[in-house]
Write a structure and sequence with these properties.
Length: 250
């Protein structure tokens, strides 16, 4: 589980552990938060370890997968959740921010898939779930154009990885979350400003609310389950029915 120290990744790590999975809580910088997630899982009687790795750095990802194999002996599921959003439009975006988003959001998914796939291929079993974004499908939201492009790449990668790995019995799917109440959405502004922003974002969904981490976690759980064994190469939208689209093409 990449980027599992907080937000959607943390919720997904906890839900997977509750269902009996031994979980690797990957983090890049937040060692203390990752340790807290591991403690919570262990207190519930399940197995978890925290492993530091910046997914943008291939060598760190390779080392993380080696440690995982040493500790757990196999990898059934890879959830590529780590991601960053640097706000900006085509006129304002700085090149360093673009490079960083491509490195984490796109190369990160490739690095993890490359490192994990050989182990899954060996067992002719594996589930890969990539967390993309509704932004990839054409939402009409200011200052997310470059981010949307990186997430569109995640959907494209999902379909191509499904094609390349399906022959080995490996399922690869993506989730496109709408607005989810995490630090990514709430990191700027006073608590009052955040509440006003969340209330206005909630109105963009047919269901009239923003999502919670668990909304995505349970979708990931389904896609990672054997019950979804015939589902692959799909991008599952989990957004409460968002209405602010430029285009509805998937
Ligand atoms: P978040 O910022 O709370 O969590 C992101 C996690 O990724 C953090 O734990 C962070 O430390 C980790 N991370 C960042 N860079 C990393 C790196 N280089 N290596 C390893 N870990 C790294 O945000 P979130 O909302 O929980 O986002 C999770 C995923 O969901 C992201 O891919 C994001 O793009 C996607 N998403 C979020 C929303 C939303 O509304 N919150 C909507 C659509 C998609």
């Amino acid at each position: 589980m990449t980027g599992a120290s907080r937000g959607i990744g943390k919720a997904t790590a906890l839900v997977f552990a509750r269902e009996g999975a031994a979980v690797v809580v990957n983090y890049s910088k937040s060692r203390e938060l990752a340790r807290q997630v591991v403690d919570e899982i262990r207190k519930a009687g399940r197995q978890a370890i925290a492993i530091q790795a910046d997914v943008a750095r291939k060598a760190e990802v390779v080392a993380m997968v080696e440690t995982t194999m040493r500790e757990f002996g196999k990898i059934d599921v890879l959830v590529n959740n780590a991601g960053i959003l640097s706000p900006g439009n085509i006129l304002t975006l700085r090149e360093e921010s673009l490079d960083e988003m491509i490195a984490v959001n796109v190369k990160g998914v490739i690095h993890c898939a490359q490192a994990v796939a050989p182990h899954m291929i060996e067992r002719r079993y594996g589930k890969i779930v990539n967390v993309a974004s509704l932004a990839a499908l054409g939402t009409a939201m200011a200052d997310t154009t470059p981010y949307a492009a990186t997430k569109a790449a995640v959907i494209s990668l999902t379909k191509r990885l499904a094609l390349e790995l399906g022959v080995y019995g490996i399922n690869v799917n993506a989730i496109c979350p709408g607005f989810i109440r995490t630090d990514m959405l709430m990191s700027s502004g006073t608590p009052e400003e955040v509440e006003v922003r969340l209330a206005s974002l909630a109105k963009k969904a047919v269901l009239g609310r923003v999502g919670e981490g668990e909304d995505i976690a349970y979708s990931a759980l389904f896609l990672a389950s054997d019950e979804a064994g015939f589902v692959t190469a799909q991008a599952l939208t989990v957004d409460g029915g968002r209405m602010d689209f430029l285009s509805h093409s998937g």
